[in-house]
Amino acid sequence: MRSVLTILTGSVLLTAAVSGSFPFETIQLTEADVGNFSSISFGTRDAAKPLADDAPECRAFPGSSDWPTDEEWKQLNVSLGGALLRPIPVASACYKAGDFNTYNAATCRYLVQQAGRSHFWLDDPLSTLTQWPQGATCQPALNPVGNCTRGGSPEYVVNATTVKHIQAAVNFARNKNVRLVIKNTGHDFGGRSMGAGSLSAWVHNLKSFEFIANYTSDVYSGMAVRIGAGMESWELFNHMGASGNITVVAPGGGTVGAVGGWLASGGHGTLTSKFGLGADQALEINVVTADGQFVTASSTINKDLFWALRGGGPSTYGIMTSVVLKAFPPITMASVPLSFSVNQALTPAGMNFTFPPGLAPSSLNSTATFWKGINIAYRYGTKVLDVGGYCYSYIYPLGNNSFSFTTTHNIPGMETAEISALLQPLFDELNSIGINVTNPQLSAWSSNFYSGGRRTIGTAAPAETRYRSRLFPRRNWEDDELFNETFTAIRRSIEAGYTFHGIAYSPTREVAGSPGADSAVNPAWREAVLHASLMETQPEGISAEQARERDKKVERYLDRWRAVTPGSGAYLNEGDPAEPNWQQSFYGSNYPRLLEVKRIYDPWGLFWARTTVGSEGWEVVTEDGYPFSQNGRLCKVDG
């Protein structure tokens, strides 16, 4: 027996009963609900296997002969109790011309100037925080280019507040050959939550929480929490405080979903070097599979599905509704910043930032000294990882051979004197080459640093940033020549004008523990000491050909990163949809087994997103020609 504290929106329920699911998960689709509406009937996986290759060449699409009729959509809405939405892009308010005739100057100003200060974008059923996959057909702007169309946004959305809603959405999409996508907050850099002509299962409102004081299974015994699939990181941090100042591994970004796609791709956070990746924390996962069934996956039931869901990629095997995660005693985190620049202070384009007194970056006149300091700082970073910490850094190209570097060394569970002893050799070495580091500032906070009952500030309006990434293994730090080659490759990409974002972690199998060490997490993560991203924001209004040329240019620099990390990989959630040999890069040696699991649990290929397991047989046929846009019909690849 385990004691539990369940916290629901607006109420607190104390119970001593074993709780394997939330109340919203007990509301499920039944055969009686299906009745005569066969469009939401359950599937049979065994029966589907011989039919998989005979599936239609394309998913149904608005205007196609197999697109569901208006009456069928109405019937679906009745089955859902009114939870079916047909929202339009909110930025249509900025356009005088387009498909929606909803121009409103005041609303547009709010979207551009104020919406990012709230949860507006996160709570919108269509919006994602990266717009290029949508086709950039309806961007928020005071003086927009072109007209507003739906583009790659879903056609319909199911506002899921029960398992029944998700089951009906899954069954309808499968039976009617409609493309299905999944969305929570919209922290999606690759277009997985987008899809023209699709039905979206929106799980953002599944926010229940349960603290389990004594959880016992064959692989774990200790504190745990169960959280709903829609919970954001800041909400989870608040619950940590309310439950007695426990610690749970969560995304570092306060508005990122705390499970779902984050966990399914591995999921890094502030405690990754201490306790492992997000996927390493999962003990049970409740999920709706492609046949519409609601099942639990754990170390004892549906074990192959449990393995795949933890790191084997999102939007692939099912739709998570809740997850049980490990919980730990409270831990204090300390942060020590470091920054320096050459030829110019830190003023990247578009940033409005003032350093606190004493924390302004050391300004240099020598580019050679700047890059030598970069090598020293990153080389020393592994010492922070080895005590369970992480380093969070950016290198900004500022033009005219000017660059700026900023990082924080974040260290859990150590006293001030210990932290000073750990970092002083780094500061001494920097001082010895002329980078002045005096009176480094230390700040400390609890691991539940978002606690306090507050709602975090939202996020900026959707933008056009493209992310490419690579996992750099420890061996690149252990060999002097290879280390220098590594940072020469990184330096060349920054000198070309791309922003570099580096997060140093070390989520080894030993740190992952049980059951995390036995999961589908990309094996490259277990050897990594640096997850690095190259970031580029595409200008508004560029043509498809211009976009392709920009892609080719940045890929030349990514190829240099790949050349110094043979056999490593990249993090799917912050990876490039153009990643060559993506099966190896994102999944490593796990890919063949993951493909087997995919074929078992989703023989229809219902769950699809680019570079997810089994996705190679389908592609989005776009009219606009933009690379990797979701603004088109999903069809089988020719041949």
Automatic annotation (TrEMBL):
Domain of life: Eukaryota
Ranges where the FAD-binding PCMH-type domain occurs: 149-330
GO-annotated molecular function: FAD binding; oxidoreductase activity
Keywords tagged on the record: Oxidoreductase, Signal
Pfam families noted in UniProt: BBE, FAD_binding_4
InterPro entries: BBE (IPR012951), FAD-bd_PCMH (IPR016166), FAD-bd_PCMH-like_sf (IPR036318), FAD-bd_PCMH_sub2 (IPR016169), FAD-linked_Oxidoreductases_BP (IPR050432), Oxid_FAD_bind_N (IPR006094)
Signal peptide extent: 1-20
Family: Belongs to the oxygen-dependent FAD-linked oxidoreductase family.
Protein name from the UniProt record: FAD-binding PCMH-type domain-containing protein
Organism in which the protein naturally occurs: Apodospora peruviana
